[in-house]
């Protein structure tokens, strides 16, 4: 059997680590890109803002599939560094997509539910719903989606990739919501970090904390997302006529919580009081730099139509097991 190779960008990150594991568990040759945590062997040091370095790693690794996880994905950090964010979320994505199209590779680009406005009553959003991001993070990820589409369409229309899109590979967008899972540090995840908030509040370290009890979130485990990345890549790679395959897919848990409800859950699991954490039901502050959507729940219909499993781990059950394992 011919060995298959995947290149995972952001392979040392919260999602990237699980994507590496998912492909490796199926016998693929897996290489990742990183920067500060690259080991030079399985994780190659690549500056994704440098197209020449992207070119070199693709030439060296020769992957049939690229899963592009690397991104600036924290909205507040995005607003603090808009130029750096655009270089990574948009420019690097375009450079990767262009080179994947030329090499007839399958590119899975990880995007976000924040491409949608999240107005009350709009969700769930189908994959073909009209995006309208409300903050810069969503804008840059949507621009990344556009870059993927344009580069593969350009290659399929007679660019360097060949005479047809089937020959130039295929670029597929996979939108996901807020993620949680196994982490080196809780700060890696906007969900995991709430465990730190609960513990510090219980110890009286931070005084009283106001926690959002307005916006709805659908926390999804990184292991489940990684499995879907593998299933999508395998399906798209095997399909000879890629013209009928959808270019935008969405994956999400059905578990629904506000951030305050997650804190309540973590307090119950850890046996900690959360009386110093106050629910904030006011919604977005109109003067705030980052506006967050109310409900961006993603429909998984397009994945189900492909026959790809969309079941997810139970949020409460996963955290109960995680906390028991930590105690022992």
TrEMBL record:
<feature type="domain" description="RmlD-like substrate binding">
    <location>
        <begin position="5"/>
        <end position="308"/>
    </location>
</feature>
<dbReference type="GO" id="GO:0048270">
    <property type="term" value="F:methionine adenosyltransferase regulator activity"/>
</dbReference>
<dbReference type="InterPro" id="IPR029903">
    <property type="entry name" value="RmlD-like-bd"/>
</dbReference>
<dbReference type="GO" id="GO:0006556">
    <property type="term" value="P:S-adenosylmethionine biosynthetic process"/>
</dbReference>
<dbReference type="GO" id="GO:0048269">
    <property type="term" value="C:methionine adenosyltransferase complex"/>
</dbReference>
<dbReference type="InterPro" id="IPR036291">
    <property type="entry name" value="NAD(P)-bd_dom_sf"/>
</dbReference>
<dbReference type="Pfam" id="PF04321">
    <property type="entry name" value="RmlD_sub_bind"/>
</dbReference>
<protein>
    <submittedName>
        <fullName>NAD(P)-binding protein</fullName>
    </submittedName>
</protein>
<dbReference type="InterPro" id="IPR005913">
    <property type="entry name" value="dTDP_dehydrorham_reduct"/>
</dbReference>
